[in-house]
Amino acid sequence: MKKWLSLLLTLSFAVAIAACSGGNGNNEPAPSSSANSGSNNSASEAPSGDNGFVDGKYTTPITLTTVWGLNENAAIFKEGESIEDNVLSRTIKERLGIEVKYNWVVTNTNDAYKTKLRLMLSSGEKMPDVVVYRGDLETVNMLIDSGQFMPVGDLVDQYANETYKKGLELDPAIWLPITRDGQKMALPILDYAYNGDHVMWVRQDWLDNVGLEAPKTIAEMEAVMDAFVNGDPDKDGQKNTIGLATGFKNGFNNWMTDIGFLFGAHGTMPGQWNLTADGKLEHGSINPAAKDALAKLKEWMDKGYISQDAALFDETTGSELFTKGEAGIIFGPNWLPAWPFPDLQANVPGATFKAYPVPAGNDGKIGSAGGNPPSNGYIFINKDSKHPEAILHYYNWFFDNTANPQPGSEFANGFAEGYDYALLPDGTLTADAKKYPELFPGLKEQTAPPLFYSLTYEGARIPTLYADTHVKLASGAAPETPYEKQEFNTRTKENIDAMKVVVDQKDIRMKNYYMGPLTETMQSKNELLNKLLNETYSKIVYGQQPLDSFDTMVDNWLKSGGEQITKEVNEWYEKAK
Amino acid sequence: MESAINEPLQQQSQISRNKKERNREKFSRTWPLHLMLLPAAIVTLIFAYVPMGGLVMAFQDFKPYDGIFGSKFIGLEHFRFMFEYPDSKEVIVNTLVISGLKIVFGLIVPFVFAILLNEIRKMFFKRVVQTLVYLPHFISWVILGAILTDMLGSKGIVNTTLNSLGVETIPWLADGDWFRFTVVVSDIWQNFGFNTIVFLAALAGVNPALYEAAEVDGANRWKQTIHITVPAMIPIAVVVGTLSLGNILNGGFDQIFNLYNSLVYDKGDIIDTFVYRTAILNGQYSFGTAVGMFKSVIGLILIVIAYRLAYKFAGYRIF
């Protein structure tokens, strides 16, 4: 009897395990069948003859198939709603006659969406009408190389509205990463421009304490840093401050705690491909100008202007030098007052900071990394799609209606009441779901901005809008449109002023001109070359190697594959430009 | 004569038949136990053995787009690349030095510590110490890395203390040799608690009669330690040492990755961090697989050798 009991237990356990593993194995083919049926559906429902898009709407509703990865923002749904059926999908269906159908949806943790997309590609599955991807260029390339998607150049000319076209024309380089043999293979999803470009943030209270003006040149900056190190700018009677918060653990051209401006002041930009005077691309780290910049940086290290641990710090840990009140200058984007500067105000009550233009070199040279095209993600259109233009109508609609709604228009307050906003009895606008949970029914004390459900991630963003708004507000004008009001209410004055500094200096940006996939030699040699560069750079700054080892490094770099990579990069540029 | 020859043969076949029968009989009694083992065996098969099929990637020019079955076979190309790569020698030497030091000191420190702890008669104090030294084992290196970078920086608590004692600032993480020192010491600090517990368990098994007898013979505490405690711990030390030899090519990725920087590449870059940068960051999955396979093979060979040696010299079998 006992024996039988144990046998039964064992069997049921084994079956359960088999079922689990079997289930995992079966999961993969499932999407393919639904993918096929999905595209069949759209084929059968498609109206014959003309596109059927009349007066901003498909007269016979069409189905657009896609796949989707839910990110943190878009994973908040009202009770009873989902990505397939929500206030946005219903609005789109009603206004545009487009029904978006999801062949599969994953929660995008640990790049699950990317993994599933790649699995689809590697198993040769048929792609849905539209695939949207925001992420690494390798996956973008795999999507293009699959040959399942169509060139979009003509579609854009024919169907894109003025706002989208203008955004694209802002920088023709936006097409470079997705151009193959002159054909544009995907639609860029636009994002706000200039948002990553740097300004020089200076502790204003320190400047006042040492009685100096904000530096405009590297020489003046050295004088300020000297005063910050030796002049006791924090008035605590101790010599415990440094000049510049920087960290080059990840390289010498960073998104925050940047040191690239010093190279820019000598005429190059390390860690990226710069356009030289003769129209060729060159790796900025091996330009002779970098040697002078390194000599300067070593001098700064010896004089204590920068931290002795700079090589140990990445961007975040490096910024702590500034937020702890140890350093007086930091280079970074306009939005640092939103993060991480609140830490500074917590650590050093009364600390003030202000954005200033990036300083110029002693012979007038100036440069800072940035100015990259304002795209963030791509839309791929299946070449077998019955309605390849549908996604453009979709995107246009967001540009027209939600990107920058005018006061009094339908979406002026937000997308939908009870989702991303609510009106109080006295008519004022609120988005505080914690305070007024009853105004956001079906949501657990949080707002659910429906625009995040859109295929284009956040509806539509007009690249220049962010900068234009800030420049306008910085000049003292009153906010008028809902977008201006929102920015005015949520951004600090320092932030808004910083954006004006960025825009005033937009011509000094040094773009990374190589936007293609990793070339063959890059794949095998990038590691070796980057290690060589970073090791030599750091050791020169720390005085562990003489300055002249820069020249040996350049020779080695060229010999160990750098020459070949330069060739490949220029071949790509010739084809893409 | 003939029968005399045949008889033993017949006997033998009789015996083997008996044995078979006995086995069958035994199996008929124990088969539910075997069946209960089956799920575990299946799970091991699926999760430990089937993925080994992925090792073919090491001999392919693997492209995610083509998959394992579509990618081209290129033989030992990746292994050739690995040994011809200019930095390979440096990286392998670093790994051997760092993990060698970790293994040696990672054995000595808990060995001595366990003996010292064993001499403590206050049970409560012993337990508390035992738990405290074990605790760091559970802290992730992501956190420890940040803590150490802060503590060991030029203005960190360690250097400010040293400075106030008149010692110059030490570049714990910014100089190759000091970096190795920091890595080995912090690794032992983090992990010696675990082996201490293993050794303490071995000590608990020593027959108290041995100590009593030694005392009667007039052996003092030190003599007792040398002649009873240490010999009793040798076999378990051999086991611990043998098992850790399999890790000789693992320098400790999490630790190095969270502590290293471009200044210490020449002394601190190990195989795993190197593979991370080449294979993962640059999408060279085949190369990463090849290095991983190389590491596993060397590790296996070392374990086998150490196992034989342990048996030969310490008379100890693990398996």
Automatic annotation (TrEMBL), chain A:
Superkingdom of this protein's organism: Bacteria
Organism of this sequence: Paenibacillus nanensis
Keywords, sorted A to Z: Signal
Signal peptide: 1-18
The protein's name in its UniProt record: ABC transporter substrate-binding protein
Spans annotated as Disordered: 25-52
InterPro entries reported in the protein's UniProt record: Bact_solute-bd_prot1
PANTHER family registered for this protein in UniProt: ARABINOSE-BINDING PROTEIN-RELATED, POLYGALACTURONAN_RHAMNOGALACTURONAN-BINDING PROTEIN YTCQ
Record's compositionally biased regions (Low complexity): 26-49
